[in-house]
Amino acid sequence: MMPSLTLAARIERWPIAGGFTISRGAKTEAAVIVAEVSRQSPNGEAIVGRGECVPYARYGETPEATLEAILGLRDAFRDGLDRQALQSRIPAGAARNALDCALWDFEAKVAKKRIWDVLGRPEPRPLTTAYTISLGTPESMAEATARAAHRPLLKIKLGGDGDEARIAAVRRAAPDAELIIDANEAWTGGNLERHLAACAEAGVTMIEQPLPAGQDQALARIKRPVAVCADESVHDRASLEGLRERYDAINIKLDKTGGLTEALAMADAAQALGFDLMVGCMVATSLAMAPAMMIAQGARVVDLDGPLLLAKDRDNGLRYEGSTVYPPNAGLWG
């Protein structure tokens, strides 16, 4: 058990630069929850650990309910609830993610070490992140792609009908960039092979979640000309085994796994099963990206561009130089 900790949390809203559109809809702001665990140090200074999550309506989460779930554990933290006990106290999801990451940050600060030293891992290196192109008409997506064509890795949001034209338009606008596709469950068994063929023709290297979770059995019955990555179909270690015939890779998002603790274990389990790793994010600030940098070190594809899509990031945010993202400084997290 941990010493008694004070728990606080709040909803923050961060404007998105220009808006963000996927197959399930559009939004103009990122609603995030920041959780803080703290106690007074012997010299009277407060030691504060922070974590950030993004509640996702796709999984029945709202900012208000997530905040309530977090604050409902105030007494438990006062009674010494620790990170390991947290894993079984509440289910995987956004609320547990914010708390788990706050506890990792707290542990690093108490130990006066960086998070990678606490984990016994090498210091993380800078990585190339994907940059997301929102769903739109082929023309609008081509325009957005042309502005980002200098970036080495682009993630293209698709939406079902008309996707073949979108894929072709994007490739013409960025002939040299590596392309990955995210269909967000918008394809069907009827258009799956046609869309896969269009992706292969355009030189796409990976496709995220083409079919709805629970309705993706067709992926096991066809030859996949492009690697397919599970997103909505995979959450934590328990969901891995049943995906082996359908997917080549899995997307680890801390808001799905319920934090860094499960994400670390899941990454090891997935690689042992032969999956490639992708590390993804929701649209959020650097505080949400920072813990994922530890998982990203072993990933085939890194998609941690959330702060790049905001009108403004928080203070001490991750350093981005073009599409290169650097590990967090101690003033941000870990």
Question: Can you describe what's shown?
Answer:
This protein has 334 residues and is an alpha/beta fold. The chain has two domains: 6-119, Enolase-like, domain 1 (2-Layer Sandwich), CATH 3.30.390; 127-325, Enolase-like C-terminal domain (TIM Barrel). It has helices spanning 63-71, 74-78, 83-89, 94-111, 115-119, 138-147, 163-173, 192-201, 254-257, 260-272, 286-296, and strands at 6-22, 25-40, 46-53, 127-128, 131-133, 153-157, 178-182, 206-208, 227-230, 249-252, 276-279, 301-302, 320-321, 324-325. The strands form three sheets. The chain has an eight-stranded parallel β-sheet. Strands 1-2-3 form a three-stranded antiparallel β-sheet. Helix 8 links the parallel strand 7 (178-182) and strand 8 (206-208). Helix 1 (63-71) crosses helix 4 (94-111) and helix 10 (260-272) runs parallel beside helix 11 (286-296). The two termini are 21 Å apart.
The gyration radius over C-alpha positions equals 20 Å
Parts with pLDDT < 50 across at least 5 consecutive residues: none
Order of helices and strands: EEEHHHHHEEHEHEHEEEHHEHEEE
How many angstroms does the end-to-end distance come to? 21 Å
Quickly count the domains: 2
**Basic shape:** globular
Please name the CATH architecture of the largest domain.
Alpha-Beta Barrel
- Main sheet specs: 8 strands, parallel
Total number of beta strands:
14
Assign the CATH class of the largest domain: Alpha Beta
